[in-house]
Amino acid sequence: MKNLRCDAVIIGGGAAGMAAALELDAAGFSCAIIEREDHLGGILMQCIHNGFGLHEFSEELTGPEFAERFIERVAQSKIAVYLNTTVTGFNAAPSGSAAEQSACKELFCVSPAGALQIQSRAVILAMGCRERNRGNVRIPGARPAGVYTAGFAQRLVNIEGCIPGREVVIIGSGDIGLIMARRMTWVGCKVKAVVEIMPYPAGLTRNIVQCLRDFDIPLYLSSMTTSIFGNDRVEGVEVTPMENGVVIPEKRFRIDCDTVLLSVGLVPENELSKAAGVELNGATNGPLVDSNLMTNIDGVFASGNVLHVHDLVDWVAEESRRAGRYAAEWLQGRRPEPQIRVKTGSNVRYVNPVRINPRRENQVYLRSLVVKNDAVLELRLDKRLIRSVKHRHVQPSEMINLKITPADFGGLNAGFDSCLEFSIN
Ligand SMILES: Cc1cc2nc3c(=O)[nH]c(=O)nc-3n(C[C@H](O)[C@H](O)[C@H](O)COP(=O)(O)OP(=O)(O)OC[C@H]3O[C@@H](n4cnc5c(N)ncnc54)[C@H](O)[C@@H]3O)c2cc1C
What we know:
Layout: E1 2-11, H1 15-26, E2 31-34, E3 50-52, E4 61-62, H2 63-75, E5 80-82, E6 86-91, H3 98-103, E7 105-111, E8 114-125, E9 129-131, H4 134-137, E10 147-149, H5 150-158, E11 167-171, H6 175-186, E12 190-195, H7 205-212, E13 219-220, E14 223-229, E15 236-243, E16 246-247, E17 253-256, E18 259-262, E19 266-268, H8 271-275, E20 300-302, H9 313-331, E21 340-344, E22 348-352, E23 355-356, E24 362-368, E25 372-381, E26 384-394, E27 400-404, E28 419-424
Parallel strand pairs: 1-2, 1-8, 2-5, 8-20, 10-18, 11-12, 11-18, 12-13, 21-28
Antiparallel strand pairs: 3-4, 6-7, 7-8, 9-19, 14-15, 15-16, 15-17, 21-23, 22-24, 24-27, 25-26, 25-28
């Protein structure tokens, strides 16, 4: 077994991993990116549509163009990159005293050169997320060929050069499904419908407009896919409209198709985190982190889609740069200051991080549970309103970001046991 030692290891070489590693490198720490694919860039490499980088670079790039800008900087840095190398085990607390444990984490990897063991003082989790599949959403019916997740179909079309079918129905209106509705149309397929169980779309408004409306692709909201037909190959789907959350069987109808793409959500990739003892947030399936993006394990940080599923890569890069900077501060011996708890109030699905530092600027990301015009985001410290922010429109698919600074707390005393509650009214 080969052994390696460095200050920090970053698991995953997507936008998050590269952005975090560049900060650690700039701060003078030795670090390694471990990536299971044969290239850096992560999911960006199959997203050949444009719409990336408007905030980060003030221009509209494709996914590979966005990734390339980071890959070039990584190539010019001292960061060690291990490709085709999968982290299969993570021991965040090797035996020894508490001081020894905090000074050493062990990763076990499978690489083309054989087994690799890496010891580091800090670890950044940047493993991205994976797609939910048919099993996760329990669509009844037969098990024919022709059912794919939208992201896998994207890989087939954009990377392997293979078109998986001709007549397509997309189940779920997540962003990948919307992007694939347009992509499949461009490659000559007939996209017959997008079927969404919720009364509102799961994807960004800009994708509804640019990928469905511009191509006259019907979107059925409040509609459940109640069966997939076909024995060897998909022959169609059954769609049952819903009213007030209840299916109306007499209104069900069939759409003939030979291919079904599923765009029914993404789940942060946290098997390694769980095995290492990282506590997860039930609302995001990502690690619970403090305002320094540090998990419950000292020296283990998380950012990007492994932490919570982001809609824009720009926010992934922003968050991951901070993860890299906080990890560098931690390596320099700076320990997090006391922080106050964050709580979700009415109409808020989650807030990240779950603790914030009232004496420092905090970047907070949150998602609404509801679709609402003229919404007001309210922040209450121990039930006392300290700030309200007006939003013309909020919806679950569009992440809200907010900076919280010491000025928000005014002269109020935010002690250890204080709690900052976020609600949308
Ligand atoms: C289809 C699609 C369309 C999108 N469209 C847009 C858009 O138009 N505009 C926009 O701004 N954003 C868009 N996004 C969002 C944005 O691209 C992503 O949020 C961002 O790229 C995620 O970066 P990440 O590094 O967190 O994850 P990823 O890019 O998924 O990177 C994670 C990496 O970790 C590696 N990995 C995982 N586990 C291990 C392991 N055990 N060992 C080693 N390596 C491992 C994976 O191979 C992967 O390379 C889109 C996303 C998708 C999926």
